[in-house]
Design goal:
The chain contains 3 helices and no strands. The chain is about 60% helix and about 0% strand.
């Protein structure tokens, strides 16, 4: 399976952002997603969270841990109505 993230990664500069991605993926895996599915979802959530923060705060104006605050609202938007 090949998955390509389409989010712009110009914001990836914050130290620890890769650790945050790994944490998102492991959390999704722990919730029962298959490994490949957790990785794909994790990349999407991580990229979307970073893009939102970079639009609101600026590319270098946020910390990696702030990415996590964006994940629950993004997941809620993806839930079927």
């Amino acid at each position: 399976m090949l998955v390509i993230g389409i989010a712009s990664l110009a914001w990836i500069r914050p130290s620890g952002s890769g650790d945050t991605l790994a944490g998102i993926i492991v959390s999704l895996d722990g919730r029962g997603a298959e490994c490949a599915q957790a990785a794909a979802w994790g990349v999407y959530l991580h990229g979307t969270a970073g893009n939102r923060l970079s639009r609101g705060i600026g590319r270098i104006g946020f910390l990696a841990r702030e990415l996590l605050d964006q994940v629950p609202p993004i997941m809620a938007e993806l839930e079927p109505a």
